[in-house]
Write a structure and sequence with these properties.
13 helices, single chain
């Protein structure tokens, strides 16, 4: 009885602590929201004040942010959406295949490949960004239609690590039964293995989705900014004459960019936890 009481008290304390931390993490998003509804002069004057009758401008900042300058905001949205979707699909498909191959073949070459993927996770991006820019230009990977290949390379480390932990826990007998029924490697993967990878597919997909959608540095270095802008790059170029920045419009565009990813995360966060836990336990 005493242990149960102590456990209940500890649980209550932890709940309160994490609730406070959650509020702290939400404060920046709340600040972006309230400042996106205020006139630029009031944002500069007092960024922490709530909108009032004088400072409130409604959706004017959102309209201005979407129509400001010569580069359409919706065009940036389309590029970000295309790059994100294609990159995530490539990462999920090829990295799950690689993890399955590494787990089932378990040769020296496959282990070396796996360790190289793990090594890529600890190498800072700043160490390779200049070489990456040069290589991307030479290989013509500097467009929104080819940059997903670059994201595949950078996202493979984490994805293969998570997929491998889950694949090792899958029963080999199911794949052997599929082989007896005449399934080749591709049919076995797509008809047997891939459906069983659903929890990890969802968790890896969401994590990679948030990374690619919010990424600023890689597109900034690789893409030709006179032709192609993703949403993070578009935000940087919301400048008027003499480098002046309309913070109200900037906050509005930032809010538009983070709303989709917040909605996706809220509805899929339970799958992230399940996928990570499954990969960790079964590995």
């Amino acid at each position: 009885m005493k242990k149960n009481t102590q456990y209940t008290k500890l649980s209550t304390v932890l709940t309160c602590v994490f609730a406070v931390l959650s509020v702290i993490w939400l404060i920046p998003i709340f600040e972006v929201l309230i400042n996106s509804l205020k006139a630029n002069s009031y944002v500069n004057l007092d960024p922490f004040a709530l909108p009032n009758s004088d400072s409130f401008v409604g959706l004017a900042n959102y309209i201005k942010g979407m129509t400001f300058g010569n580069y359409p905001f919706l065009k940036s949205v389309s590029y970000s959406l295309f790059i994100t979707v294609v990159s995530v699909v490539l990462i999920l498909l090829f990295c799950s295949m690689s993890a399955w191959y590494i787990a089932r073949v378990n040769s020296t070459i496959s282990r070396i490949f796996y360790y190289l993927c793990l090594f890529s996770m600890i190498v800072p991006f700043q160490m390779v960004m200049f070489t990456l820019t040069f290589t991307a230009d030479k290989l013509k990977l500097n467009t929104p239609y080819t940059i997903p290949i670059v994201y595949l390379g950078f996202g493979a480390g984490l994805a293969i690590f998570m997929f491998l932990g889950f694949v090792k826990g899958l029963p080999l007998e199911i794949e052997e039964a599929a082989a007896i029924d005449g399934c080749g490697p591709l049919r076995t993967y797509f008809n047997v293995v891939l459906p069983m990878l659903k929890p990890t597919l969802i968790s890896v997909g969401i994590l990679e989705l948030m990374w690619v959608w919010n990424d600023y540095l890689l597109p900034y270095l690789v893409l030709d900014r006179t032709k192609y802008m993703t949403i993070p790059i578009h935000v940087q170029y919301l400048k008027g004459s003499y480098g002046s920045v309309d913070l109200g419009a900037t906050m509005a565009v930032i809010m538009l960019s983070i709303i989709p990813i917040i909605v996706v995360y809220i509805f899929c966060q339970k799958h992230i936890i399940k996928g990570v836990a499954a990969g960790a336990v079964k590995g």
